[in-house]
Queue: 2 jobs
Job 1
Amino acid sequence: MSKVYRGITFAGYSKPKRTPNHPTKSHVVLVKDDGKDKMIRFGQQGAKTAGKPKKGESQAMKKKRARFKARHGKNIAKGKTSAAYWANKEKW
């Protein structure tokens, strides 16, 4: 069930994918919002902190991760139509 939206092929709704050729954003996702399709680009291209917490992660990285979540908490809470939600879920 692949979807094509604005020339980009998605595996489906709410399935983020990498965008290595985009100049600034690292990921893109297609979501359904009030019956309409919406494309959301998120994530800083080349961010060093991207990925899930790893075993033996330094305290500095843990603090960096926590600060991101605190700084963007309101936007993360907005749900699937916000870039912060997807960045939190996919990258942090």
Job 2
Amino acid sequence: MHRQINGTVVAITGASSGIGEALAEHLAAHGARVVLGARRQQRLNDLVGRITEAGGVAVGAVTDVTRRADLAALVESAIEHYGRLDVLVSNAGYMAISPFDQLEVDKWDEMIAVHVTGLLNGIAAALPVFRRQGSGQFINIGSTAAYVVKSPQGVYAASKMAVKAITEGLRQESGPDLRVTLVSPGFTNTEGIGKDQTPEDAEVMIRTRDAIAMPPSAIASAVGYAIEQPAGIDISEIIVRPTVQA
């Protein structure tokens, strides 16, 4: 018998738009109690308001995943409001792809800080809670870039490969009581596409997005599937891509 999403306490980073927003709405609609973290206070407030008005249960906390204290506060918010945390979805992302010759070193640093340090900060915050409870699930959002490197995505791909490696290492250490899942999206229609790129590069990315990208709801469904598996069953890895993506 499958678990029900209903009643599950789920914390989500990067929740104010794109995949995170779709996740929040999808899980809340299925009865999860969601704890939403994002940097943009107003977007967070609006999302919590929409979920609540639709009959769902949600709280928000301003969260920058590169700040260890923010992740600790997000996890603590779940415990404070609902008494526990069942799932942490590490979804915060930053996609500032560019050729190496452009030497966008600050953006390289930001991608590594969000995808790698941010993921580790979430693990550090939630793992002791999961151990204490004797249950919990990490769901880490990767990328198909972790499997196939395409120019000019070298640094982005490297950071997502790190997500994949950290997730697999954590899975091996998790023991029989915890679950660890990697969900790797292909081209997804989010506002991050084309962000912080040259106008020419951004135009190409946005044109491709509009032509082939899948909706964020596809990833929300995959995450829901991983959560609702019976206790003791770990969906270790899911890759979701539009059929048109080579």
